[in-house]
Structure formats: C-alpha cells, structure tokens
Amino acid sequence: MHTRVDILLCSQKSEEELLSVAERIHEALSCLEKTANYYDPASELAVVNRTASVSPVVLSSQLYAMVDLCLEYHEKTSGCFDVTVHSENYNQDTIHSVCLSAEEQSIFYWQPGITINLSGFLKGYALETIRDILHSCSIENALINMGNSSVLALGNHPAGTGWKVNFGNQSETEKTGESQSILLYNECLTTSGNESEGRRHIISPQNGNFVEGLRQIAVVTKNGAVGEILSTALFAAGPEQRETLLASLRPLLVNHFLIGY
C-alpha cells in the first residue's frame, strides 16, 4: 500500500490501551503487506504470480478470500474491475485463466504470464481489517484515513453526530480554496481516479490502456473493500457502462460523486 495511515480513536480507554490498539492495527497492516503487496517480491502474492502457472499453489485463508472476492466482483461489475490487467498479453478473457479451488484452497493459472495485482482493492480491505480490530477492542467511535482516498468513519466525532470528511481533486481544491465534504456515520468513503495529469495508474480492462483525464469517482458504502472495488470499476468504465453499473450496483452504494466529469 505504501501510504500514510491516520488513526483517530475516541474512547474512555487509557492512552496506554489506545496505543496498544494502534499497535495491533500496525501489525495487521504489516501482515497484509506481506500477504498481498504486488510490488514486494517476497510477498505471498508475488510468489503466487511467479509459480501458479506451473502448479497449483495453496493460499493462506486471507489471500484466498481476497482473490475470491475480486473474482466475484469482476462478474458483478461486468469486467470493469479486473485484477489481471497487469498480465502479459492481457485481454478481457485473461482473468478466466485464473482457477480457484475452494476444496483445496488453492490457485492455478492456466497460462503463463498472468499476474494478479490487488493494489486497487487493498486499502479498502485494510479498512475492514481495522474495523474488525476496533470492534474486538470495543471502540465505537473512530476515523481511519488511508492516503486521503480510503476512509472509515465509525460512530461519532466528539463534537457531534458522524464525521465530516473532505474529498475531491486536491489540485482543484488548492486552486479554488474550496472542497467537497460529506458527513459519514458507520460508512466508508473511497476515491479512485487521477489527481494530476502525470499520475495515471488505473488501467481500463476494455482496452488495456491507462484511463486518462483529471477526474475522480468517490463512493460511500457500508463496506470498505466493496467501496474500493466499485470506485475503481466506475472510474474504469466508459460513460454508458458507468450508468448501467450505477443502476445495477445501487443496493451497494450509499452515495457516489463524479468529480471533474
């Protein structure tokens, strides 16, 4: 993920107890990096990408759950969310060469050159991991901000109901001095897109090219992992397909915002 994480915990617990919670979060995120960091050659995912086309690889329960969810939402987003877009000779059928075995908890690539990249999903999954830790520690009011693009808001700010969160294009905000904001209560806000012309990083599954334009899509959802998937899929989709997805995915969306369109 390689991103800053801001943690704000509101509780009657002692400072020592809250620091212990923060340490648990740090350990969980470090573990997540070791499992699913595409860019770390020592991660479990990197080992899978190197070897799964040779023979089936048994996955940890965590990585299996992540890949399984991503394959499920590839179908639900009509292919607009595709974790295989970084594969060699990629096309829209590449992902169908990824074979998961529920019985063996294993994965196999039917052809060489396939790679799975979970970067467009990992921060949202991390928010849900953090939510579970906070729940186990009986912390009901908290704000977690990962890189200003993935936010989990639990309960209330000490001064009132929910959490007011700013979002939108940072360069445009600096230019106008204005930003959009929303009140979140037990919800996640995830944003996907291009903050500047030189920072393209989302590939369109339709053509295998980077999505151009100084635009972003923000979604509010109950689940951070799902939100990360949906914001990425909606940004990668074309205009007509985006409208179709918004209609079909409406039960999963609390709200959405098109920024720069």
UniProtKB/TrEMBL annotation:
<keyword id="KW-0460">Magnesium</keyword>
<keyword id="KW-0285">Flavoprotein</keyword>
<dbReference type="Pfam" id="PF02424">
    <property type="entry name" value="ApbE"/>
</dbReference>
<dbReference type="GO" id="GO:0016740">
    <property type="term" value="F:transferase activity"/>
</dbReference>
<dbReference type="InterPro" id="IPR024932">
    <property type="entry name" value="ApbE"/>
</dbReference>
<keyword id="KW-0274">FAD</keyword>
<protein>
    <recommendedName>
        <fullName>FAD:protein FMN transferase</fullName>
        <ecNumber>2.7.1.180</ecNumber>
    </recommendedName>
</protein>
<dbReference type="InterPro" id="IPR003374">
    <property type="entry name" value="ApbE-like_sf"/>
</dbReference>
<keyword id="KW-0479">Metal-binding</keyword>
<keyword id="KW-0808">Transferase</keyword>
<dbReference type="GO" id="GO:0046872">
    <property type="term" value="F:metal ion binding"/>
</dbReference>
